[in-house]
Design a protein that fits this description.
With 313 residues, the protein is an alpha/beta fold. It has nine helices and nine strands. The chain has a five-stranded parallel β-sheet with strand order 7-6-5-8-9, with helices on one face. Strands 2-1-3-4 form a four-stranded parallel β-sheet, sandwiched between helices. α7 links the parallel β6 and β7. α3 (86-96) packs across α4 (109-116), α5 (132-146) packs across α6 and α5 packs across α9 (282-300).
Length: 313
């Protein structure tokens, strides 16, 4: 496959197959066994926006598989500040690498990059657009907890307007027949065109400002940060900052196997008291970025993951 720009680039069968690969690669991600499937391959990490988990998990994934990584580094010390266009940057890195992971503040930049490149592009987030590699690790986390993806009740909460993670995840969950509760302040509702698209694909969607009202029946609660950097007006941000705060005391009536997820970083939307509950999965979710991206790197580089790797528990 050429690259991964949105979840539309993967069929349901491909999603499940990649998740199976990820499951087999777990002992490699955990450092229990060494499997240099990507030895001799080079990943180009192009991050035009700040990143901790996505950038580091891509780098860890590539190195765990025996490959190497070149980083753009700080944009301020690159030729971008000299006026180099994204097209020229991609053309240059295309010649140095076998695959590129890219994050960019402009929506649509990942598709533009793929159109300019010969090597596959992995979209690590394009503005408020899409974040499909995050969706793959989210799906892996959900599948690990519940043993399935289909038919679950999922609350997506917080910044649904600018949150690219929930834009991608909502589409994927709809494809697996999940019921979606979209809980957000009115200023941060899921974009109407995304809701319309979800409905057109047969989604069971409820929009609400009440986060806590559905927790007792939910299988997954997916919290998100109010993204201050996406607001042009600080007064608008101030109206919604701290809108939702989840405490351990809010979970008393929750299903025993309900999980709480968060793409991180969190600010104050999940109180530290939640960390010690059986529901918290966000740090495990962050680790799953390594194993999901390992599986994606192998798939996009046409490298088969062995059926029996060994080294696991």
């Amino acid at each position: 496959m050429p690259g991964l720009i949105t979840m539309d680039d993967l069929s349901n069968e491909e999603i499940l197959s990649i998740l199976d690969d990820a499951q087999r690669l777990l002992p490699v991600a955990e450092g229990k066994t060494y499997l240099p499937l990507l030895q001799g391959k080079i990943l180009g990490n192009l991050f035009f926006e700040p990143s901790t988990r996505t950038r580091m998990s891509f780098e860890t994934a590539m190195k765990r598989l025996g490959g190497d990584v070149v980083n753009l580094g700080d944009v301020k010390t690159s030729s971008v500040v000299k006026g180099e266009t994204l097209f020229d940057t991609i053309q240059m890195v295309d010649g140095y690498t076998d695959i590129i992971a890219m994050r960019h503040p402009r929506q649509g930049a990942a598709q533009y990059a793929q159109d300019a490149a010969r090597v596959p592009i992995l979209n690590g987030g394009d503005g408020a657009g899409h974040h499909p590699t995050q969706t793959m690790l989210d799906l892996f986390t959900i599948q690990q907890a519940h043993g399935r993806l289909d038919g679950l009740k999922v609350i997506l909460a917080g910044d649904l307007r600018y949150g690219r993670t929930v834009h991608s995840l909502s589409h994927a969950l709809t494809r697996f027949g999940c019921e979606l509760i979209l809980a957000s302040p009115s200023l941060l509702k899921m974009p109407p065109e995304i809701v319309a698209d979800l409905n057109a694909h047969g989604a069971n969607v409820t929009e609400t400002e009440d986060l806590l009202g559905s927790i007792e029946t939910a299988d997954v609660v997916y919290m998100t940060r109010i993204q201050k950097e996406r607001f042009a007006d600080e007064d608008e941000y101030a109206k919604v900052a701290g809108a939702y705060k989840l405490h351990a005391s809010n979970l008393d009536g929750a299903k025993e196997d309900m999980i709480i997820m968060h793409p991180l970083p969190r600010v104050d939307e999940i109180h530290p008291s939640v960390d010690q509950t059986r529901h918290a999965r966000y740090f495990e979710q962050a680790f799953n970025g390594v194993v999901a991206r390992m599986a994606l790197l192998c798939r996009l580089l046409d490298v088969e993951v062995p059926a029996d790797i060994g080294g696991g528990a």
